[in-house]
Each structure stands twice: as C-alpha cells, then as structure tokens.
Amino acid sequence: MIPSLIIGFVLLVILFSSFVTVSQGTIAVVTIFGKYRRILTPGLNLKIPLIEFIHSRISIQNRSVELEFQAVTMDQANVYFKAMLLYSVNNQNEETIKNVAFKFVNDQNLMQALIRTIEGTIRSFVATKKQSEVLSLRKDIVDHVKDQIDTVLESWGYHLQDLQLNDITFDEVILTSMSRVVASNNLKAAAENEGQALLITKTKAAEADGNAIKIAANAEREAAQLRGQGIALFREEVAKGMTHAAKEMQSADLDTSVILFTMWTEAIKHFAENGKGNVIFLDGSSEGMKRTMDQMMSLNLIDKAAKNL
What we know:
Layout: H1 2-17, E1 19-22, E2 26-32, E3 35-40, E4 43-46, E5 52-59, E6 63-72, E7 78-89, H2 94-102, H3 107-126, H4 131-134, H5 138-156, E8 158-170, H6 172-251, H7 257-274, H8 286-308
Antiparallel strand pairs: 1-4, 2-3, 2-5, 6-7, 7-8
Helix pairs in contact: 3-5, 7-8
C-alpha cells in the first residue's frame, strides 16, 4: 500500500512539473542537459519532465539604469556626466533570445559591459571637443553614442531605446570662470544697450533742439518781415501825411518848414517820454535847431532837384 502511494505521489509531482507558467513580458529559455532546446512564450506551456529545464527567464520589457562618469576635453577640462540609459531586448526572435541568454554569464556582467561601452564612447567623443563646446553638444553626444553602440548591442540581442544626459557639470574653478564670463558678457550687453539708448536720447534731443531752432528762426524771420512791413507802412503813411500837410501849407501860403519844425519838436518830446532814464545828448539851442532845420531843408531841396532831373 505504501509503495503504491509513493509511486502515485511521484507520478503526480512529475505530472505537475510538466506544466510551466511564463509571465507576460517574459520569455523562458529551455535546455536539455545544458544545451539550448527552445523558448517558451508567455502563458501556460508544457515541458518534458526531468529532461527539459528552465535555463533563464528573459524580460523583454524596457530597462533603465543611471550612469555617473567623468570625461576629459581636448583642453584638459574635467566634465562630469549624469545620464539615464533606457534599453530593451531587440525582439522576440529565437536567435535574439539565444544571444541574450548565453552572451553573458549574468545580468551583472551585461550591465558592466554596457556601461563601460557607453562611457568609453562618450569619453572618446568629448576628448575631441573643447570645454566651451560641450554644453552645446548634448544632442550630438547622444547621436554619436547611438550610432556607435547600436551595432554592438544588436550582437548582444539588445537595442538602445534612449540615452538622456541629465546633467553636465565641470570643476568648481571652471564653473566660477564660466559664471564670470557670462556676467561680463551681460555687463557688456547692458553697457552697449545703455550706450545705444543714450545715443538715441541725445540724437532725439539734438533733433528737438534743431527743430526748435528752426521754428524759432522761422518765427523770427516772419516777425522781421512783419516788422519791416509795419515800418514800410508807417513810412508810407508818414509820407502821405507829410504830402497832405505840405499841400495844405502851400494852399495857405505858409512855409513848409513849419512841418519839419513840428516833427523836430515831436521827436524831442518822444525822446523825453520814452527814454527810460537813458542819457540822450541834443543841442536844444536855437542855433542848433536852425542848423538842423537847414540840413533837413537842404536834403529836401536835393531830393526835389533829383526828381526834376
């Protein structure tokens, strides 16, 4: 009875061991006596008990790893990188799964080879660039790594999905000098902007002054023209008044020199009223008046003689 129970139990264990469940996103690699046999896809699978064994389970999902390493530029500046690497199994083909399962002893060796390969690729690229160029070459570095490493990863059964350079830093001395360069460039730009603003301000002020001068000159010119026209009109009216007065004097058989005498006395009166304290020297004697009258009459006679000619 007991042997039968033992045999039944062993058969039951063997029966259940023939069923294998593979999780979603995973491929199981089956071997027979250590040699590759086949792969098992996700779901419930059957295997030969006691002969077929699960060698490994390969995840076909994306994996990520963070990297931190240092590189040296062409001008001997230390550059520190922090990167995020995203990779996955290339596909679910049998040959690809065999490469993934048997190229490396374990995942630790795979990660070591992958990280060192990427670090070496980035270091070789950075070594050809200057420190001032590195920050602007982030995309170029990623593209260079993908171009160089895709073939190698494909032979391992993997594919590089993405490489992100999250942080690129330099030594403290270099960062300080870069900050000074940026600050000096900002000061230079600010000084140039202030100079241009001052130039524009002075130019506009000069234009305004020039326009004001032009306006004042035009106004002065117009005022001078108006003053000249006023003086001309005044002289014209004076001439008309004197002509009319002279005709009246002649019709009354009076000497026209009385008009000149009246103008002389009116001029002296005007000087006295509007002098405002200014000193005006006039010969107020009768001889002086006679001399002035003679001169004015002689000018009048000369003018008449010129008209007669």
